[in-house]
Amino acid sequence: MNLVDCSSVDRQELTSLDVAEALALDPVNAPAPQDDPHHACRSCDNASRPVTRKTVLLMMKSELLDRVNQDEYRFCSDPECRVVYFSENGGPAFMSSDLRVRVGLKEKIDPVPLCYCFGFDEKDARDEISGTGTSTVTQRIVALIKQKMCACPAKNPSGACCLGEVNKAIKRLMADAADSG
Ligand SMILES: [Zn+2]
What we know:
181 residues; alpha+beta; N-terminal domain of TfIIb; disordered N terminus; binds zinc ion
């Protein structure tokens, strides 16, 4: 079942301004990521973003729930770093393998989740691009954000909306498709 009428979807890549505008539409359910270089990841030293304890608990393998303490956790968005969550108080850090879901930002082998609220992954986008020459994924996500249908803090391990990362991934997949002819 199509949630969005694709015939009305405008197939264009989003500018960073479009992404910023879409991410301002529903800050509760689809919050913009807030990567902050002043809160560096304990492992890779790159910017991290705040994440709620609830998001951490919703992602964690059940046998590790007791290790999630009352610390304030942060999410590392660096694709090469295996740390997903850490606290700045020196408590335990959690790696990709500690989560029940695959962290798409840190995975390179299918399935690579792009959008957790609505289930788009990289293969969907790659298939659409090879079939039609373009992708409607970002526009479909924007339409759903507008309808306030997102649930990023409960669905996305980063606690934030995927749109900016999806837009980057689509640009990369379009370039890959163009390169391979
Ligand atoms: Zn890191």
